[in-house]
Amino acid sequence: STDALSSTNDDETVNTYTAQGDLVGKFKYWGISHQAILGAEYIDTDDIRVRDNTPALTAYVFGATDQPAWVQMLDQSRYTLPNTRLHAHARRRAYSFTNVLGFFDGRAHLMFGVRHDEGTIINRNPIATDAIGRYQKISENANSPTVGAVYRVNEAISVYSSTSRSFAGVPVSAIDVFG
Predict the structure, then answer these.
(1) Are 111 and 100 in contact (CB under 8 A)?
(2) DSSP character for 65?
(3) Is the pTM of this model over 0.90?
């Protein structure tokens, strides 16, 4: 008939700034249309998270008209047990070069290119109990090639196939099996 409660107040702000630009060159030669696309991207993300817990609240009695635990959960002054003070800052840069070749008056296209991503993620948590919890710096550096082809059978149907190698950004609070 009763349940012990505690409560968490989680305030998080994520400011993200990004800039992206592309240069496109269009060419025609030997009956082939060619687009060369040079791209650049910059992303800056600042994640500030403050998470506090309450001490144990008054027991919550189901079906009772007076619920002091609920009132205590709404009292901001009770959130005094720090859980997390996370400041994560990520800076990423990417550069790409892609070619699209068109054949047979635009009925078939071949695409190939590569994207290079690099950057750093820095995590700080001043209340962590160990050194790796207080400060982590993770570097990213990867190339992602892409190849694709499309053929327009008629105005309503096209067949498309592509393959690429991609990568996932390093998780903010984890280390993969390769370190």
Answers:
(1) yes
(2) S
(3) no
